[in-house]
Amino acid sequence: MLSDFLIKMMKLPMFFFDLKLTGDILQRFEDHKRLENFITVQSLNVLYAILSFFVFGGVLLYFNIYIFLTFLIGSILYISWLLLFMKKRKVLDYQLFEQRATKEQIKQINQAIKYAEQQGGIKMNVRVVK
Questions:
Q1: pLDDT grade, residue 87 (50/70/90)?
Q2: How many whole angstroms separate alpha carbon 59 and alpha carbon 68?
Q3: Does 32 have pLDDT greater than 70?
C-alpha cells in the first residue's frame, strides 16, 4: 500500500511539490503508515480477541455458568469502558495531528532561514529589548 503511494508520488510533476509543504507530504506518509498498521496488525488483533472470547466463554460455560456470567459481565464492563473513552481519544488524535503539522511548519521556516543566511541574502539582526 505504501509502495503504491510512493509510485504515485514519483509520477507527479515537480510543480506539485512546489505547491505543497513538506510537512503535508510527510503527514500523508505517516497517515499511510497508520492505515497500513490498522489494516494489518490491529484488525488481526481484534479478530483474535473475538475468537478467544467465544472459545474461552464456551469453555467457561461448559465448566460453570456462574463463572461464565462473571466473565460476561466483566467483558461488557471492559467494552463499555473502551467505548466511553473513544471520543476523548479521537479529540486527542486530532490535537496530535495539529501539533505535528505545526512542528513541521516551524521546522521548514527554520530551514528556510538557515538556507537564506548561508546564501548571504538575509542577515538576521536580533535585538533584545529590556
A1: confident
A2: 8
A3: yes
